[in-house]
Structures are given as C-alpha cells and as structure tokens.
Amino acid sequence: MAAAQGVLVPAPSRRSEVAPFIVMDVMQRAAQIEAAGGRVVHMEVGQPAAPAPRSAREAARRALDEGRIGYTTALGLPSLRARIARHYRDAHGVEVDPARIMVTTGSSGGFVLAFLSMFEPGDRVAIANPGYPPYRHVLTALGCEPVLIDTDASSRWTISPEALAEAHAVTPLKGVLVASPANPTGTMMAPEALARLFAAAQDLGIRFISDEIYHGLDYAFPAATAAALSEQAMIINSFSKYFCMTGWRIGWMVVPPSLVRAVERLQQNLVISVPTLSQIAAEAAFDGADEMEAVKHGYEENRRILTSELPKAGLPEFLPVDGAFYLYADVGRFTDDSAAFARRLLDEAGVATTPGVDFDPVRGHRFLRLSYAGSAAEMHEAVERIGDFLRRG
Ligand SMILES: Cc1ncc(COP(=O)(O)O)c(C=O)c1O
C-alpha cells in the first residue's frame, strides 16, 4: 500500500495481478467502428446470439408476478437439482444423486468452489494449452499454480495420459482440469480418451475436474460425461451455452460425495445462494429442448459453411471442428503476430476475431479463434470478407 498526502491508497494485491482478456480490446475496437457507422461481423464473442428458451423466460416472468424473490439454500432449489439429476439419466443413462448437485453462479462460480474445496495454496493443477484463460488466472488468484500442458494434433489437442504422467514426474500435480468440447479449440475428447485420462489421474493420485459447459453442442460424436466414470470426478457445467443463458449467471456442479459439505459451506459464505429467478428459469429451460436443438442445428449449418468455404477463401488450416461454436484457425502462413493480424482483419475487413495469444502464451501468436454462434448469413459474409482480405494481402 502507498501513502499519498496522508491518505492511504490501497494498492492491488499481487494475487489480483491476472492478465486481462485481449478479446476485450477487440470488442472495444469493434464498438468504435460500429459507432462510426461501420459494419462488423462479430466472431469474437463466445456467446449465443439466441435468447434463453421461451419456457425459461415465461417461468421467470411468472415468478416476478408472484412477488417475493428470496434466498434459496446454498445448494440450490431442490426441484432444480432433481431436474439436473434427471438430465444425467435422460442424456447419459447415468444415475446421479441430487444430493451431489450444487447450483452455481455460472460455471465461473463452480471453478472457485471446485478449486477452493480441492486444493491448498501452492498446489499444482494441470490444464491444457491452448485453453480457457480464466482457468489459469483463477487458479493463480487463489494461490495455486497452473501447469500448462502443451497439446497438439497427436492427442486431438487434449492432455494425454502420457503428458500428464510426464508433468507429474517433474513436480507432483494435485489436479487436472479438462474440457470437452473445449474453448478455444472446439475439439473434443473421444469417450475412450476421457476414460483413459481419468484412470491415469486416479493411478497417479491426481484429482479430476471436467468442465462440461459445451455439452449439448457436440457435432463430431456425442460428448461423454466424466460423471459416468466415477463419483470422484468433479463436474462443472452451465446453462450459459447450450441453453443460451449467459447473462442469467447460472450453472451447476456434480460434486464428489466427500466434498459436498465443503462446497456447501464455501457457497454459503461466498454468495449465500445463486439468484433465485435464474434458478427458476433454469429449471424450466429443460422444457425448451426443442428450441435449443433448433439453435444447435443453426451452429451445425454455420460449421458446415465455414469448414467448406474457409479453405476456398484461403484459410485451409484449422483444428478439428468437433463441438462448441469455435473454429481455431492456424494463420501462421500469414503472420507471427495474431493480435496485429486480428486488428487488421477488423479494421480492413470488418471481421472481429480473437487472437490465439489470449489462449496460448506459447503458440497463440499464429492462431485466431472464430466463434460461429451467429447467423448463417453472417458466416457467408465473414468468409467473403476474409477471402478478400487475404487476397489483398
Ligand atoms: C470453457 C469455458 N468454461 C467456462 C466458461 C464460463 O462460463 P459461465 O460462467 O458463463 O458458465 C466459459 C465461457 O466462455 C468457457 O468457454
């Protein structure tokens, strides 16, 4: 802390010194272009363009009309937890005890609860590189050490059992976190790969966290849940993506039995409970599956347009486009500075994308992430603009 003219000015703590999201700069620049009357095709933002299912919005409206919105228990509304448990039975044929389901403020809230309940300060936790930046930033802020394991095509861009064992041999790991489908790559782990990695982690005494936020948005093959493998896997999920409820800030965890009480105590103290209106809406969201499947088919069409048209436009190299709504393109033949390249693509062609450096400090300088959560018309427009931009050089 620094003193200025007798006033104690609080300086930020060291643990708060996490990196900003570079995509925010892209969004800011895109907003400037639009404010000046320009047109931007938005492929930078990782959120659905569609609203929450009608059933969810109607349930929220009814709850508002009824009046009082109070706290719920820290674990969440019992009816919502039971509905989530039913979802595991319906979608995966897995019986999950509703007592293990914890409602959270998005999967972001789930990470904090998972990390705090599973790890001590100084513990090392493996995550895939490239990966979702807040994994490493939240771990760091909580005093843990993220261990980035570089992935490549040989393991379909996920952590292999061998790579996990190798990192563990250097300095022991306490945990490993995986996501399938993943952000930014959009790649998925085959069910056998997930099972093998989980078994390897068990053998090595490494705790397992599975971020399943993009479940439901799987195109290459059905996404497998780690909940089917063992009660000891910590599952994190969310209503943000498949159910198009980013702003409602609601998700859930499936917690190993030995950690339920710890997670509950943390939640009681950190947030008391998750917004009740969002919990009511989320429960009703499960009744809007037909609507959400139609949204998913839209993404599938976008994926088809991009994977068939981008190579013709001059962008032929990208990772397997398995799920979520991301295409991770290798632009190394054009640049070794993806942030500058993304900036030019935005300024000169009006296409907003996210530079890979946000997700991979090592190789991200040659990648761009394109989100295809928009409309088919926008995908065609983006391809045309990208093609013109690359031809101009
Ligand atoms: C892989 C991944 N996990 C978690 C999140 C956080 O989502 P939320 O807190 O809205 O559930 C995101 C958001 O983009 C994500 O991409």
Based on the model shown, name its key terms.
globular; alpha/beta; binds pyridoxal-5'-phosphate; 393 residues; three-stranded antiparallel beta sheet
Description:
It is a single chain. The chain is an alpha/beta fold and 393 residues long. It contains 12 helices and 14 strands. It has helices at residues 22-35, 54-66, 78-92, 106-118, 133-141, 161-170, 191-204, 260-270, 276-285, 289-313, 338-349, 376-392, and strands spanning 2-4, 7-9, 41-42, 101-104, 124-129, 145-150, 175-179, 207-211, 234-238, 251-254, 326-330, 351-352, 354-355, 367-371. The strands form 4 sheets. A 7-stranded mixed β-sheet has the order 4-10-9-8-7-5-6, sandwiched between helices. α1 runs parallel beside α11 (338-349), α3 (78-92) runs parallel beside α9 (276-285) and α10 packs parallel to α12 (376-392). The longest helix has 25 residues, at 289-313. It binds pyridoxal-5'-phosphate. Residues 46, 106-108, 132, 179, 183, 211, 213, 238, 240, 246, 251 line the site of pyridoxal-5'-phosphate (PLP).
Write a brief caption for the model.
The chain has helices spanning 22-35, 54-66, 78-92, 106-118, 133-141, 161-170, 191-204, 260-270, 276-285, 289-313, 338-349, 376-392; strands at 2-4, 7-9, 41-42, 101-104, 124-129, 145-150, 175-179, 207-211, 234-238, 251-254, 326-330, 351-352, 354-355, 367-371.
Q: How much β-strand is present in the residues?
A: 5-15%
The strand count comes to 14
Number of helices: 12
End-to-end separation in angstroms reads 50 Å
Instruction: Please identify the structural class as seen in this structure.
Output: alpha/beta
Largest sheet: 7 strands, mixed
Assign an overall shape: globular
As a whole number of angstroms, the C-alpha radius of gyration is: 21 Å
Order of helices and strands: EEHEHHEHEHEHEHEEEHHHEHEEEH
- Unreliable stretches: none
